[in-house]
Amino acid sequence: MTDNKGVMIFTEVVDGKLAPIARELLGCGRKLAGELKEELSALLIGSGVAGVAAEATAYGADKVYVVDNELLKDYRTDAFVGVIEKVARQANPRILLLGQTSTGNDLAPRAAFRLGTAVTLDCVALEIDASSKLLLQTKPVYGGNARAIFTMDTLPQMATVRAKAMSALTPDSARKGEVVTVDAGLDAATIKTNLLQKVVQEVEGVKLEDASVIVSGGRGIGGPEGFKELEELAKLFKGAVGASRPPCDNGWVPTSIQIGLTGKVVSPEVYIAVAISGSSQHLAGCSGSKNIIAINRDAEANIFKEARFGVVGDWKKIIPAFQAKAKELLGK
Amino acid sequence: MNIIVCVKQIPDPEAPPASFKIDPATNKVAPPPNIPPVISPFDEQAVEAALRIKDAGGAKITIISLGVNLLRDVVKKPLSMGADELILLEDPAFADGDSWATAYALAMAIKKVGAYDLILCGRQAADWDSGQVGSCIAEILGLPQITVAKKLEVRDGKVKVERVTADGYDVIEAGLPAVVTVSNELGTARYATIKGIMAAKRKEPIVWKPSDIGVETAKIGAAGRRVKMQKLFQPVREGKCEVITGENEEDAAANLAKKLAEVKLL
Ligand SMILES: Cc1cc2nc3c(=O)[nH]c(=O)nc-3n(C[C@H](O)[C@H](O)[C@H](O)COP(=O)(O)OP(=O)(O)OC[C@H]3O[C@@H](n4cnc5c(N)ncnc54)[C@H](O)[C@@H]3O)c2cc1C
Fold it and tell me: Do residues B218 and B248 share a domain?
């Protein structure tokens, strides 16, 4: 299979635009394609997505494959696997990348094995090995305690990439690209799951992924009332509230604000970790923050190893005093 | 209703990060001394999901676990929670596979079990965090898959699942048999009962070797890997935290605010 060439990105679309992860993947793919001196393509799958092709080009794609079909309006495993298989067999990419999203991590393993290859999920770094030209896939393992670098000899080499691990290019609307329309060739009978309902749990205020300040609470917050205090603090900074897993598991806060390996990945300017011990699984979601500030009564807590500033003590005393002083300094 | 749950024995993922070590000689993780291994937490939640279905309408639950050096006390935990049978794929030839090699062996064992309506796995094993075995089993057996479930309901030959998404959840339905992977949002797994522990003590697991399930040895374990590990390392942490102090906690807190203003982070 030496005729496999180029880097292909499965570009997810949200609200009629490229998802942030798709832009990041195109940025990363551009670099890899450059090193290989091969082409970068985007694969758009959905219903009414043809219009997004221009955006994919602006973010770096040389070629955009568009598969537009009513049956692809919502993500369903069998339909999307079938389409990826079809396009990948037609285009024969050397590398095929997806986002580590709820779609990507459902789709990638099955598509990989359908294509007779393999995939590494949740990569944080991708490089081309200078001598073998293989894709070096760096993935956190053991909950983030270690990292492993994987390769595969089968083609296409596939990986999913964690949010915010790569940077998008500045879009260039003058860039020219080719658009290839591919017929979905779907047989509705092969789609074995039925999407009955999509439930969106709206979070008020700033979205976690977009917030420049996040105030995050852990098990030591002790209950939903404590999170009210963190919310006030977050409001003062026009930020958002996050949580480690125990507050979500205990129902103190919605599960959609969990940060970590199996939650959201965030990289704000300031991440205030309150009563969070700093497990590797939690850090997996916030270690990209520019400045971590730890508030914990245990001076030995692991979070202090990641933090730039910290205060040792009881958050119940620290948070109100910190908020009062911050308010004063901000002149509010 | 026959449910198969795949569970994996792993080093305790909640062990303190400082106890985590890689043995440079073998390029493998050195299990922390004095901390016993556990069933991967998501797999335990998959067992819980199966037990809830059993509670609601009856089911036979068969546990399959693949690995080496499987501690009976650890792998019997699902039995003590209320599962019915335990099958171990325990042989060095099964060890060190990637997701595909592992799923292939599990799928062949599932075929040998024969009767199954629902196959459950954890969303990912908390050691390698690969997150693929469930999908691979579904692919090999040609079944529908629903991943990252927080709620399952079985009715009229179908499974209805709430699948966790970034901003909520999808409600998805599939005809049985199907493969579902389970996430922690399902809720905590139940404790073993004394009665369950006694019953589990008396129950001997069935052990299958590669020849028992008709697998090609070139396709299982380390020999069957498509994904090759080139390197395993611990990222270095800088650990330069400036601890802000004061006369008391309130004072330290005010000093923190001042410090943040000083470095323009406020
Ligand atoms: C496979 C897997 C995936 C996981 N995914 C995630 C994930 O995505 N996100 C995640 O967060 N976790 C995840 N976890 C769980 C993770 O291992 C930890 O259990 C969890 O992060 C601990 O949360 P915590 O720090 O809030 O709680 P704890 O570890 O219990 O820490 C509580 C902290 O609060 C401090 N404290 C208590 N009271 C006070 C007080 N009054 N004032 C100040 N400090 C106080 C304590 O000193 C302690 O440090 C995962 C686990 C596994 C096995």
Answer: no
